[in-house]
Every structure is written in structure tokens, then in C-alpha cells.
Amino acid sequence: MSVAKDPKAQANQSLQTGIRKGLTRYGDTEFSLFLRKAFIKAMGYSDSALERPIIGITNTYSDFNPCHGNVPQMIEAIKRGVMQAGGMPMVFPTISIHESFAFPTSMYLRNLMALDTEEMMRSQPVDAVVLVGGCDKTIPAQLMAAASLDIPVLSIPTGPMLTTLHQGDRLGACTDCRRYWGKFRAGEIDQEEIDEVNGKLAPTTGTCMVMGTASTIACMVETAGLSLPGTAAAPAVMAERFRLSELTGRRAVELAKTADQKTFSPRAILTPKALTNALTVLHAIGGSTNALIHITAVAARLGIKIDLDMVDQLGRNVPVLVDLKPSGAHYMEHLYEDGGLMAVLRELKPHLYLDCLTVSGKTLGEEIEDAKVSKARKVIRISSDPIYPVGGLAILRGNLAPRGAVIKHSAASPDLLKHRGRAVVFSSLEDLALRIDSPDLDVNADDILVLQNAGPKGAPGMPEAGYLPIPKKLAQAGVKDMVRISDARMSGTAFGTIVLHITPESAENGPLAVVRNGDMIVLDVSQRLLHLEVDDAEIRKRIDALASPAERLAIPESGYRRLYQTTVTQADIGCDFDFMVPSMTGTAPVLKGR
Ligand code: FES
Predict the structure, then answer these.
(1) Global pTM exceeds 0.85
(2) Is ligand 1 within 6 A of the CB of residue 359?
(3) Dihydroxy-acid/6-phosphogluconate dehydratase C-terminal domain location, by residue (predicted)?
(4) Is CATH 3.20.20.30 correct for 394-554?
(5) What would be the CATH architecture of the domain defined by 52-162+204-370?
(6) Is the CB of 208 under 6 A from ligand 1?
(7) For the chain: N or C, fewer Cβ within 10 A?
(8) Preceding omega of 469 cis (within 30 degrees of 0)
């Protein structure tokens, strides 16, 4: 027996999908559709093509972004997949941010990219979207955008670069950028050699091929289930990257056709359990400290608070299993050869929630079982033989960081993880640049370098300046590492004993703002302690003597910088704009470690 359908309900339904979705407002919906079709037909589309589910594909290609240099070829492959599955691919541009081409910092622009991506996805008629990103801030921005919407998305990274050799030494961006620059500063290599290295550090398009922020985020997104298995590690220029792109296009159409699109929306996939899995992987891969800020921002948009103490607790039970720079010795192409992220997840199974749904339609546990794993492994260790016995990141607290700070102890010097030293203070990035190499700088190898006013508001944009250079005179004397502390971030590719993200930041008149030259500081990672040996009354007196944050920041009267500096949140809640984050008071689920 057939059931008569309500024509009004049918009409409403069809207005929610495809070309009829989100009609421009002229006060006459039929005319809006008529006009939309008239214009799009200028591109040669037929009526039957326009009746298909529409799959948006974000185009983040830019001449300024070599990490996205393969995007045109990826887009062709995604379109091929969409067409194979009966969908209509529509490519649209968004902002593209490259780490080295963003002034003052890429982080300053991440929230702008998130706004751009969200509103383009909201305002154009798309039934599902493939998010093509890669360079550090781009995927986080896309995920923040997706988290604010409720349509199916699949993320696919551009993939890591390949490496090359320099006089037999394998090189990759950008751990080796810093390693060789350190050698040059110390006088170990000359101008001719550093110029030669400069031409070899990034030998193909793609993202940095160490476990920097881009690789870390790609691994976390694949773990969380918002990208298809295999997408994190396949190199940018290999055929596999384009086959995965085609597959992603096909799957996007299937998601768009699901009866209830919310089944695969970011809100349905990025559950507290899925985010916990991603954080577990962050520890196990020795991932970037930046990723902690980004996932916190994505979670916050979903109303989920990521508790830093829970992150620390997770890390105490999860070893670092991936031997990649900067914590280890190898590169992403080696992780790919070992079976990619799924091979890592297989080792981590006891630590993961395996019942989480992924965009493939399978659970994470099913995906892990299905994955092909290499028997001859080079970089993925078993739990009983880890690279580092506990997770890569630790959360520090103390009177210098009341709301927390982070250290990547898997990439630090073991002998500096417990250290007491005299503060050598730089009040800003400018002050650092002026004095760090001065022969007159009063500094010893046992001192602690302190950088102030490099946080989210202060810099602004929380630059990757936390990796303060070793003062030249010490570098030339052979010093390779010192304890360095700041409210800045650092590149995920960097190595060293570096305390970051001190919250509240200096510009908010946090205790970091009142550290003075000669104060003694204690770092004790095993106790999770960052302590200024100045009594509380004196710290309070120094803070009270400061001008207010608003006076010190000199916020301009208009423009994006005003928006940024008046609304950006602190690192412990993700550095998003405060008006983009829903209230998390009381009702938000809090992630729990296992
Ligand atoms: Fe783009 Fe490293 S500079 S990923």
C-alpha cells in the first residue's frame, strides 16, 4: 500500500537540499531559485546536473602556500569521486594561511579563516563539504568552522612533503631548519653550506614532514574520525594521496545522501570520547603543543571543555610510540611506509574508545581491524619498547602559571627537566631581537630565559617565539639547550626544554609579567611545577603596580586587530574569539581520561 505524501512537506524538504538550499532572500523563493539557476547555467551546467546533491570543496590553494601546492590535483581527484557517486562538486575558495607568510603570525589569522570558512559553508547551497587543508592553522580553522555548523564534512589534509639528503644527512622541514640554523649561529657551518641546506629543506610540496603541528593535527583528525583512514600520512606527492582524495569525494556524496544528515555531522563524530582518543594520540605521537590549543578551540565550539589536568593524566598512561622528529629520528614518509596512523592506533587499542563512529560509516575499532599494517616496521614501536615511557606533553602549574602551561618533555633535554635557574628576562619580541646576541648580555648556560608579552593578546597572535634562540655567545661555546619559558607557542617541529602557553599571559597581567632579572625559577616536570621563588605578597605588589591590560595593550580603535585583541581568549580555552564559544557553564560534558 502506498502512502500519499504531503506535497507541502515535500516542498519544504527539497528546499533544504541541493541547489534549493539557503536561497538568497528576495522575498519570493521561486524567483530566488529561478535567478540562481539562471546564473549558474552561465557555467554550462544542465538542469540534471543541478538536481544532484551538491558537495562543496574548499579551495585553499594560494601562491603563498607551498604546503597546499598539490591542492589543484587533489581537487580534481575529489571532483572525480563526487561525480562517480552521483554528486555535483562545487569548489569554493577560502583564506589560505601559510606559516611563513602570515604577519604578524598565522595564529592571528586562524580565527578569521574559521569565520570565513563557516560563513561560506553556511551561505552557499552545500549538502556536504570536503575540507582541504594542511598547513598548521588551516585544518584547525576548518574544524572550528565545521563544529559551528551541522552538516556532514570530511577533512582531507594535503599530506606531508618528502625528504632529501644533504651530504648523507636526511633533512626535513622544519626540525632540521632549526638544527642547521643553530649550527650556523654557532659557527659550525658557513654561509655557503647554510644556503645549500636552504634549498633542500622543503624538497616537494606538502606539509612539514616531521611530527609538527600539521602532521599532528592530521593524525588527530583521522583518529577522531573526521577523515578517512590513511589520509594523515600519505605523502603529498604520492598517487595514494590522490586516490584517497577520490575516495573522500565519493564518501562525501554518500554522507550527503544519508536520510539524517546529522548522523555524520561534526557534532555527531567529535564526541567527548572521540576527542579523548585524539588527545591520546597527541601524546603517543609526541605531537605538537599547538595541537592542544587547536583541539581545545574545536571542542569549545561544541560546548565541550578540555580539562588540562585530564590531558596531563592521559599522558601519564600513554607512551610515545612513534619515532619521528622532533621527539625521535624519522619522518612522515616512514610512518606511511609502516602502515600510517592506523598501525599506531593498533598499538594503542587498549587506550582508545573503539566504539566511536567515523565518517567512513565504521567505528574506529572496525577501521583499525581493517587497516593493512607493514610487518617490517621502522618507526612505530610496541608499548613495551617505546620512544619515551609516557606521553609527549605535560601540563605544568604553579605561581607562575595559575591556569597552566605546557611542555613537550619528550622533545626536551632530560637533564633540564628538573632545574632551578636565574631568570634572564626579555620584555617583548623586540627586546629579545635586540639583546639576545649581545656580547654584554648577562647570561649563563644554567639561567632560564624568560620571554614576556608574546601571548594571544600581547604579541598579538601568540607567535611561535617560545623557542628562544640560545644566546650566540653560549651557542658558540657549545650550549645546545636551556630552559626557556614564555606565554608564546613554539613550532611543533622544535626541540628543547621549552615551557609554553603560560596562562594567564603577561599582557593580561599574569604573574609572568612581573618576573625580573635575577629572580629564581624552579621547573620540575615530574612534579608538574613551574614556580617563581618570590613570595606571594611581593608578586601581588608587583602586579598591582602594573598599568591595566587595556592601557598596556594600546588596542587600536578599529580594524581586525581591535576585534582580535578585545575578544581572543587565553590558551587554556583555545584562543578563539569569545563570541564564537557557547557557554560551557555547568552543562558541558567534561572529558575523562581512562
Ligand atoms: Fe606549512 Fe609547516 S609550514 S606545514
Answers:
(1) yes
(2) no
(3) 378-575
(4) no
(5) 3-Layer(aba) Sandwich (3.40)
(6) yes
(7) N
(8) no
